Amino acid sequence: MKKTVNHMDNNLETAQQFVEEMNKKISGHPWRPVYHVSPPANWMNDPNGFCFFKGEYHLFYQHHPFSPEWGPMYWGHVKSKDLVFWEHLPIALAPGEAYDKNGCFSGSAIEKDGKLYIMYTGNVWTGPDHDKDLQQTQALAVSDNGVRFTKLAENPVIAAAPEGDIHPHHFRDPKVWEHEGQYYAVIGSKTKTNQGQALLFRSPDLINWEFVNVMAKGEGNFGFMWECPDFFHLDGQDVLVMSPQGMKPEGIYYHNLHQSGYVIGTLNYETGQLSHGPFQLLDYGFDFYAPQTTIDNKGRRILIAWMDMWESPMPTQSCGWAGAMTLPRLLRIKNGQIVSTPVPELERLRENEVYYTQVMVEGELALEGISGDHVELELVIDAQAASRFGLKLRVNEERGEETVLTYTRDDSLVSLDRNRSGQGPGGIRQAEVPLENNQLHLRCFIDKSSVEIFINGGTTVMTARVYPSEGATGIRFFADQPIQIINLKKWDLK
Ligand code: FRU
Questions:
Q1: Which residues form the Glycosyl hydrolase family 32 C-terminal domain (predicted)?
Q2: For ligand 1, is residue 46 a contact (CB within 6 Å)?
C-alpha cells in the first residue's frame, strides 16, 4: 500500500471546538432527546459507517458542525458498548481534499487487518446547479483505533461512475461488505433517464475496484434516484435496502418526500444481478430515511435510520441543532417481510415500572401514573366490538395538543395523526394492520421530540418527530365501544 496522506486536520479541529462551544448553549433544551442519538450541536443527517469494531458499536453521521442547516458535510461520531448509552467522539472526517472539498458524503465502514476503513463519497460542486454540477467519487479513510482517521493517498479509489445507462454525476453512498474473501460495494445511482438503481462493485483489497453490474434497477414508480443502498444476507435471503427519492403517493403509501425500503431476493455474485420481489417500506411514519445496518458479534442485523425527512420543517433549528437517529432496530425476516424490533438492550433504560391489567375503556380514559415525555409504553388491546380505538400521546389539554394513534376496524388501518402535535409539520400517515386474534399489540417509545411505535411485534413501525410544548406529557386511551387493555406497562426511560 502506498503511503497515506498526513492530514493536518485543521478544519477538523476548528469544527470540533465550534461544536463543543455550541453544545454548552443548547444542552437541556426541552426537545433534546434523552435516549436517542442526536448531534452535540448543529446539523445531523444520515447514519454512516455503522459497525461493530473491537468490541464497541461505532456510528458516524452526516454532520454540518457550523450551523443547524445542511452544508459541507463532515462525519460526526458516537460509540457505544451496548447500543443504549452513546459517547460523543471527535469529528472523524472533514472535507478538504480536491476530491471531497465540498463534502464527505455518506458511506460505510469495514474492518480489515485490524483497522477500520471508511468508504465514503467525495463531493465536489463543479458549478452553481447542485443537481447537475457535481462530481461524486468514492474515497477511503483508515484508522487503527476507530477514532482518528487518515484519508488514503490512493483516493479517489473509484474515480468515476461506470459507462452505460448510468448517470455520470449522481453516484454516491457506498456500502461495503466482504463475501468469500472479496470486498463488494453497492453504490446509489440513477439511469440517464432518471430511474433509481444500485451498482455493484468488487475489490480484492478495498483499493482496486471493478464494476460488476447494475445490481437492481427501479421500474415504474420507484424513484428518480436511489440513495444510501445497503445489502445483507438475513435469515437465508439477500436484502437490498435503498432510499428512493421522489416516489409518487399510491393510496395511503409514499406520502413522504422520499421513501426508505427494501426488496428481498437472491444476488448472483457472478453476474452481479439481484432477482427480487416487490418494494416494501421499512417504516410507515413521517420521519425515517437513509437507514444503514450492521452485523454485530452476536450475528444480529441491526438498523439505524435518520429520524427526519428532507425538506420537512425542523423547529429545533431555531434552538441550534437539527436531526436525530431512530432507535437501533433488530431485523428479522418473517413471512416474506422484514420485522423490526427495538434491540433488547434498550430495556436497560427502564425505571419506575407502572403496571395495569384488564382495564376497560369506553370513551376516553387517563390512568394514574401513565404519562411522560421520555417513556416506553407496552400494551395489548383486545378490540372486542369497537370499531375505532387508540391512544393519544403528548397530550396538553390546555393547548389542545395531542399526537393520536387510531385503529379503525372497517379498513384495518392504523393512523398516526400529528396535526395537533404542537409546532412543526402536521399530517397523517397510515398503514394497513390486521388485528391478531382481535388484538393490537403496541410498543411506543416517546422521547421529547419523537415517537416510535412498533405494532404487532414490529411487523409495522411508525416513526414521527413531534414538537409539543413542555407540558404535553398526558397519555389517554379511547374507544367508541368498550375495549379491554389486557395489560399495560409504562416505564420512564433514563
Ligand atoms: C441522503 C443523502 C445522501 C448523501 C447525503 C449528503 O440523505 O442525500 O445521498 O450522501 O445525504 O448529506
A1: 345-491
A2: yes
Report which of 170, 175, 304 is spatially closest to residue 240, judged by C-alpha positions.
Answer: 175
Tell me the sheet residues that pair with 485: 359, 381
pLDDT at 1: 35
**Containing H/E element for 25?**
helix 10-26
Contact 37, 56 (CB under 8 A): no
Q: What is the DSSP string of 211-266?
A: EEEEEEE--SSS-SEEEEEEEEEETTEEEEEEEEETPPPBTTB--SSB--EEEEEE
Q: What is the best residue among 60, 64, 106 to mutate for testing ligand 1's pocket, by most ligand atoms within 8 Å of CB?
A: 106
Q: Is 458 left (phi over 0), alpha (psi -120 to 50) or beta?
A: left
Q: Supply the pLDDT for residue 265.
A: 98
What residue has cell string 410507515?
284
User: Which stretches within 27-129 are classed as H helix?
Assistant: none
Which H or E element spans position 11? Answer: helix 10-26
Question: If you measure from the C-alpha of residue 294 to the centroid of ligand 1, how many angstroms do you get, rounded to a whole number?
Answer: 18
H-helix or E-strand spanning residue 17: helix 10-26
Q: What is the DSSP string of 351-371?
A: EEEEEEEEEEEEEEE--TT-B
Whether the ω angle into residue 156 lies within 30 degrees of 0, i.e. cis, is yes
- Please say whether the beta carbons of 56 and 351 come within 8 A: no
Residue 57 and residue 87 in contact, taking contact as beta carbons nearer than 8 Å = no
Q: Which helix (H) or strand (E) holds 20?
A: helix 10-26
Residue 227, ligand 1, Cβ within 6 A: yes
List C-alpha distances in Å: 439 to 366, 387, 427, 435.
20, 12, 26, 5
Q: Is the pLDDT of residue 27 over 90?
A: no
Quote the CA–CA distance of 303 and 292 in Å, as a whole number. 6
Residue 118: predicted pLDDT: 98
For the CA atoms of 277, 257, 103, 272, the dihedral, rounded to the nearest 10 degrees, stands at 10
Ligand 1 site, residue 376, Cβ cutoff 6 A = no
Q: What is the mean pLDDT of residues 341-369?
A: 98
Residue whose C-alpha cell reads 389542545 in the numeric block: 400
Q: What is the pLDDT of residues 154-170, one digit of tens each?
A: 999 999 999 999 999 99
Closest C-alpha among 39, 49, 110 to residue 71:
39
Q: Which pLDDT tens digit goes with each residue over 82-105?
A: 999 999 999 999 999 999 999 999
